[in-house]
Structure formats: structure tokens, C-alpha cells
Write the C-alpha cells for this entry.
Amino acid sequence: DLLLDGTSKVPPEFGVFSLYESCARLMEMEREKRSGEAVGLLMDGISKVPPKFNVSLLYQSCAELMAREKRFGEGVDLLRVGISRIPPQFNLYWLYQTCAELMAREKRTGEAIELLRVGIMKVPLQFNRHKLSEAILYFTAALCDFDLMVALISDCGAASLSPEQSSLGKVLLLQFTGDWVSAANEARKGRDQRPNYLALCMMEAFS
């Protein structure tokens, strides 16, 4: 009740998004789950909090709650609305990433990959585009789609990968063929350009 009261009194610029998110989480955790009320509360927050004050977190939390209630389609639809509303600098990549994950859980991995390609074209490098590039590579690897992986690595257009993600794609491609030694060498070569890139560190260690 205290958090609920706070959502009506705290202005968006003072972090009211966190009150919506915390209150919804507590509702879901109650013995008699109040998931419907939690979704309604988060939707209320989405309608009131501007993009620059972390409404992206409310979209993400609400969609994930819907998914836990097996309402995957509604979660995807909600995230698509958020994608159309939120500028890249306000964590738009979160919504693309979460939406793709929900699609994949519905066995719509092909659609998830297409969505991520659009996201890569819309989210600039400085606003975590690399997260979307990594996701599309991992989804493609999960599908074992050799031709698509080659196409992603070779793409020089608006959806092209950065050098470190291209290296990651090449590593995954070599793993497809079972050439684990060459995969480790490719990861090491990529790390020469970006030593602290965690994805390549992991690939080198486990290839």
C-alpha cells in the first residue's frame, strides 16, 4: 500500500518508475498472486512515465510478467508499442532484446532475428547496439543456420556488424564446422583489437 501510494505522489523525474516496478513485483510474490493487478499497475506507469525517466524498464517488466503468465503474444505486442515510442538513447535496445527473447520462447526465432536486424539499423553504436548484434548471432547459432551466419558477417549495409561482433560471428561459424582450434585462434585474434570484450574472452576459453 505504501508503494502504491507513492506512485500517485512521486513525480516521474524523481524515480517513480522504481515504485511501480517494486510494487508490481511484490504483488506477484504474494501468496495469492495478484499478477493481473501487477500488469494493470505497470500499464498505468507506462501511460504516465515519459521515455527519459526509465519507462523502458516498465515495458520490460510488464512484458516479462505477461510471459510468466503464458501471455507471450501480449508481451510481444506491448514491447512493439514501446519500440515505436522510445528513442534509442533511453534504453530502446532493452525492448528489442526482450521482445526477441519472448519470440524465441514461442519458437518464433526467425521473427526474432528479423526484429533484431531492424533494431541494429535503428540503435546507434553508442546506445548498446552491440547487445543486439550479439543476440542475433546467438539466435542464428541456435538455429544452426550456416548461410545466415555468413550473410550477417558479410553484410556491409545498415545492419552491418562492428569488427568485434564480426569476429564473434566467425568464431561461431568455425564452431559450426567443429574446428574448435581455429575458433579459439579467431577469438584470440579478435581480442587483440578489443582485449576486454567478454564474449570473445569466453569463446577463446571454451573453444
User: Anything to note?
Assistant: The first helix runs from residue 2 to 7. The radius of gyration is 19 Å. The chain has a mean pLDDT of 91.
